[in-house]
Automatic annotation (TrEMBL):
<protein>
    <submittedName>
        <fullName>Type 11 methyltransferase</fullName>
    </submittedName>
</protein>
<dbReference type="GO" id="GO:0032259">
    <property type="term" value="P:methylation"/>
</dbReference>
<dbReference type="Pfam" id="PF08241">
    <property type="entry name" value="Methyltransf_11"/>
</dbReference>
<keyword id="KW-0489">Methyltransferase</keyword>
<dbReference type="InterPro" id="IPR013216">
    <property type="entry name" value="Methyltransf_11"/>
</dbReference>
<feature type="domain" description="Methyltransferase type 11">
    <location>
        <begin position="53"/>
        <end position="142"/>
    </location>
</feature>
<keyword id="KW-0808">Transferase</keyword>
<dbReference type="GO" id="GO:0008757">
    <property type="term" value="F:S-adenosylmethionine-dependent methyltransferase activity"/>
</dbReference>
<dbReference type="InterPro" id="IPR029063">
    <property type="entry name" value="SAM-dependent_MTases_sf"/>
</dbReference>
């Protein structure tokens, strides 16, 4: 197994860690923005889009998309089996996202890739695979931590590194390809996607109990927010 994949498996599987992480207001807002964009774009073509949730993990996004009328497929490198899986009828495909996606070309209406690209050695190859398996006009929504948040821009000005490149952080050290909005947008363009939506969840200043978060600033200036939520449609 690829050592990067193995390191991520050790950190992100087992117990309720991922579900608890996704339940926080910060990540719940990120996922709500992402699913809004994905359902809006895929429903321009079909009423019940076929959507793959890549890196489905705790299946929070899969459930949300299904409840909104999408036909969903869970894809993850590990097979997560929560207690009620036996009564859950959404198919789960086990796949390593550093390899070609296990779908025929032009078969999916939409793809959600939440907090994945920053973990990949070759995110360009990954997005090219997303383009391959999408139908013409199909949509992909990517979320990833922002390398250039407002507070990290200030940190850099005073000689401190952005948090996303901290090699000592317990989980950020696994983020090997951090993105700004401009670098992610350029990657979308190079991989054959036209950007149709861009959002962020919150702009945050400070840390811990003294942190201040603003949804309003994130809506007006999403390139300063904590998460980048970018939607694109396949154009070639």
């Amino acid at each position: 197994m690829d050592p990067i994949v193995a390191a991520n498996l050790r950190s992100y599987t087992g117990g309720t860690q991922v579900a608890d992480y996704l339940a926080t207001p910060y990540h719940a807002r990120r996922m709500a923005d992402a699913t809004d964009l994905l359902m809006r774009e895929t429903r321009r073509r079909v009423s019940q889009p076929l959507i793959a949730d890549l890196g489905a993990g705790a299946r929070t996004v899969t459930e949300g998309l299904s409840q909104r009328g999408a036909r969903t497929i869970m894809v993850d490198v590990g097979v997560h089996q929560p207690p009620r899986t036996a009564s859950w009828h959404i198919p789960l495909v086990q796949a390593d996202l550093t390899c070609p996606l296990p779908f025929r070309s032009a078969t999916l209406d939409g793809i959600f890739a939440g907090e994945i690209v920053e973990h990949l050695f070759d995110p360009v190859a990954f997005l090219e695979e997303c383009r391959r398996v999408l139908v013409p006009g199909g949509a992909v929504v990517v979320t990833t931590p922002n390398l250039a948040t407002l507070q990290d821009r200030i940190r850099f000005l005073i000689g401190r590194s952005p948090r996303q490149v901290d090699p000592h952080h317990p989980y950020l050290k696994l983020h090997i390809r951090p993105f700004t909005y401009s670098s992610l947008a350029r990657t979308f363009d190079l991989c054959g996607f036209r950007i149709v939506g861009f959002r962020s969840n919150y702009v945050i200043m400070g840390g811990g109990a003294r942190s201040i978060s603003s949804r309003l600033i994130a809506r007006v200036f999403p390139s300063l927010g904590g998460s980048l939520v970018l939607a694109g449609v396949k154009v070639r």
